[in-house]
């Protein structure tokens, strides 16, 4: 962990600025004041199961009520609300038809070019039902897996909801992943269908989707896919395979706008979402219907303090977990109005976020630190795109997710976007946790820039050492969760052993959930600051990337003999990817090295996706290794940062190599 010296940590520990919740905000908040927070925590501490059972009854409409709350008999394969039955789509849509929300706008779709389309709850319900009936007409049924490879759209959300409605388990693959990544996920999930679009529009450019699906399916080895359903977004010319491919509009045409939801057990897998781990191939994180939905709805109320007239905007993509919990399910489950955005923050100009907030009177805005940092830079260069030029009076709450937010970016966000009126919720969580874990409550928690503050009631986070023992406040350690919680990962699809060893390691006693992050608590306040990953997972612009995945992509290139990938701190993207490469031929220099670096970058883009392209590539005759042949990544990290190596290098087999690796191609 010492390797993960984090600037954020240093700053936050010295951070003395504290921002109390505005009185007017606190007065109306769902959880108002720290006493209310403490009371909920005390309830969870005194009767853990009773606490969760109460919340699950209050927040979810159960088709069949549960009588068992938590089943720990097969730990760590925990079961929540095991004998209850529900449907996630019913809870997102149908219940809004009878509670006065039927004609309320559910989704305001802001297209890349600024065109706006809206869907009320009634309309969205009809659309999802037709979609679900269409899927059924193709023989897709409960328990089947469906891959969704789509752009941001109402149809993307409807696709997820339609799967949930018929009990099919969806697995959304981010539209920026390559054919190879898609292929790998289709095979692992054993999916029967792919839902995609002809193309996606981002920043004024159209990018292919359907042709990548074709490419993935042509890679071979896929035996399960029967259908490819295509949403017509741009109308470009695409290849169609008779019998396999169907246009979405033709599929839903003539279908009934009613579809009885398929009632599923609470533990029924709602979705699988692939994410990077420290080793090997991506892990299919499996979530359960009941627990996930409870937390999606409840954190909308607790963390975002959602109110009937709010306009909520989460800028994430449905390809990531944030888009699952806080676009596809959470906002709908609480009957909110939300903006779904197709585009990018910098098109047609870097004031697009602020302009869109003004246009749709957004009141709750949730984005990533990387976006904030890049928009700070952009408004330094071009003052016209500074938030001050746009009306932000509708805003009442801001949120941050995906990576640590450094205090400077936090202060800029607070002052320039939130006009010093809006609390900021810095939400720490993961694909595996299903929803927020450690976050301020906007009407209760005094804010400290750079700290995600305290765990939500019922979430038993702690910091321990390598043997699983608690460490005192003020001392860094490993972040764990001591008790199971409803929205936690249930298993890794197809790989229960990997689930157990990755998340419940024996070294920590086999009972604590290991988050994979380091953290430290403030001596006085007990506030948490996340200090970064303790494994070989990088966080580039809030996207999780495994160093091993990138390394194996690199060594797949015919010229590459060996590669080591490390993260390098980056002002805008948080971390950037730096690859050290040994070729099978002589080390290139000058123009040759540059050319080859470009080729390798594109290669990784094709193998994994553009987000995995190394920013820097350095060539060497070898990598720094110990005499036993272990690559010294710690030294590579120092080199990547451009710092001088002060560590003892006498155990190195080949210390001279360090000199070579200082320069990037
Ligand atoms: C990091 C995204 C600091 C962390 C929801 C975690 C954060 C990984 C924060 C999960 C935050 C997420 N402060 N770090 N507020 N939020 N992280 O699975 O390293 O894409 O383990 O889930 O992002 O990334 P994932």
From TrEMBL:
Q: Which UniProt keywords apply?
A: Acetylation, ATP-binding, Ligase, Magnesium, Metal-binding, Nucleotide-binding
Query: Which leading EC class covers this enzyme?
Result: ligase
GO terms, biological process: acetyl-CoA biosynthetic process from acetate
* Modification(s) after translation: Acetylated. Deacetylation by the SIR2-homolog deacetylase activates the enzyme.
Residues annotated as binding Mg(2+): 555, 557, 560
In the record, the note on similarity to other proteins reads:
Belongs to the ATP-dependent AMP-binding enzyme family.
What's the protein called, per UniProt?
Answer: Acetyl-coenzyme A synthetase
């Amino acid at each position: 962990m010492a390797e993960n010296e984090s600037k954020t940590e240093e700053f936050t520990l010295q951070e003395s600025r504290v921002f109390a919740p505005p009185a007017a905000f606190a007065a109306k908040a769902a959880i108002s004041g720290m006493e209310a927070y403490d009371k909920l925590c005390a309830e969870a501490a005194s009767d853990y199961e009773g606490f969760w059972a109460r919340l699950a009854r209050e927040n979810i409409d159960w088709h069949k009520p549960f009588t068992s709350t938590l089943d720990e008999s097969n730990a760590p394969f925990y079961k929540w609300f095991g004998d209850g039955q529900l449907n996630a789509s019913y809870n997102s849509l149908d219940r809004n038809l009878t509670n006065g929300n039927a004609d309320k706008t559910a989704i305001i779709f802001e297209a890349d070019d600024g065109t706006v389309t809206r869907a009320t709850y009634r309309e969205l319900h009809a659309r999802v039902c037709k979609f679900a009936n269409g899927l059924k007409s193709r023989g897709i049924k409960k328990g089947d897996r469906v891959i969704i490879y789509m752009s941001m759209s109402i149809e993307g959300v409807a696709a997820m909801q339609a799967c949930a409605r018929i009990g099919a388990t969806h697995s959304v693959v981010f539209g920026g992943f390559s054919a190879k990544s898609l292929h790998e996920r289709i095979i692992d999930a054993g999916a029967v269908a792919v839902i995609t679009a002809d193309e996606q529009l981002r920043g004024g450019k159209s990018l292919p989707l359907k042709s990548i699906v074709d490419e993935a399916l042509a890679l071979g080895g896929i035996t399960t896919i029967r259908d490819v359903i295509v949403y017509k977004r741009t109308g470009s010319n695409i290849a169609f395979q008779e019998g396999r491919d169907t246009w979405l509009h033709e599929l839903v045409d003539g279908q009934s706008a009613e579809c009885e939801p398929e009632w599923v057990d609470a533990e029924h897998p709602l979705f699988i979402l692939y994410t990077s781990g420290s080793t090997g191939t991506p892990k299919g994180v499996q979530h359960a219907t009941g627990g996930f939905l409870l937390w999606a709805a409840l954190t909308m109320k607790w963390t975002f303090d959602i109110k009937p007239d709010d306009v909520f905007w989460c800028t994430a993509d449905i390809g990531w977990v944030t888009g699952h919990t806080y676009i596809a399910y959470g906002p709908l489950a609480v009957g909110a109005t939300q903006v779904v955005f197709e585009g990018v923050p910098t098109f047609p100009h870097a004031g697009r976020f602020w302009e869109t907030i003004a246009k749709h009177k957004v009141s709750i805005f949730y984005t990533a630190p990387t976006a904030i940092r890049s928009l700070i830079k952009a408004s330094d260069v071009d003052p016209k795109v500074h938030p001050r030029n746009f009306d932000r009076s509708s805003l009442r709450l801001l949120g941050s997710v995906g990576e640590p937010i450094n205090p400077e970016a936090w202060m800029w966000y607070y002052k320039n976007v939130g006009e010093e009126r809006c609390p900021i919720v810095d939400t720490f969580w993961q694909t595996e946790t299903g929803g927020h874990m450690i976050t301020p409550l906007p009407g209760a928690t005094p804010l400290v820039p750079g700290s995600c503050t305290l765990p939500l009631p019922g979430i038993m986070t702690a910091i321990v050492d390598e043997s699983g023992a608690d460490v005192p406040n003020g001392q860094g350690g490993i972040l764990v969760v001591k008790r199971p919680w409803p929205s936690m990962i249930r298993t890794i699809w197809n790989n229960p052993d990997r689930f157990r060893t990755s998340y419940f390691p024996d070294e920590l006693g086999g009972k604590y959930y290991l988050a994979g992050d380091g953290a430290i608590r403030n001596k006085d306040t007990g506030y948490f600051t996340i200090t970064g990953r303790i494994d070989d997972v990088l966080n580039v612009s809030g996207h999780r990337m495994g160093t091993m995945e990138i390394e194996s992509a690199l060594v797949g290139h015919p010229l590459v003999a060996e590669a080591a990938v490390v993260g390098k701190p980056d002002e805008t993207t948080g971390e950037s990817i730096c690859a050290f490469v040994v070729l099978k031929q002589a080390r290139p220099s000058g123009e040759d090295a540059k050319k080859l670096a470009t080729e390798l970058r594109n290669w990784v883009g094709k193998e994994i996706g553009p987000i995995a392209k190394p920013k820097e590539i350095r060539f060497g005759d070898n990598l720094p290794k110990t005499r036993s042949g272990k690559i010294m990544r710690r030294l590579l990290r120092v080199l990547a940062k451009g710092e001088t190596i002060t560590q003892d290098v006498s155990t190195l087999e080949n210390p001279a190599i360090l000199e070579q690796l200082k320069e990037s191609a």
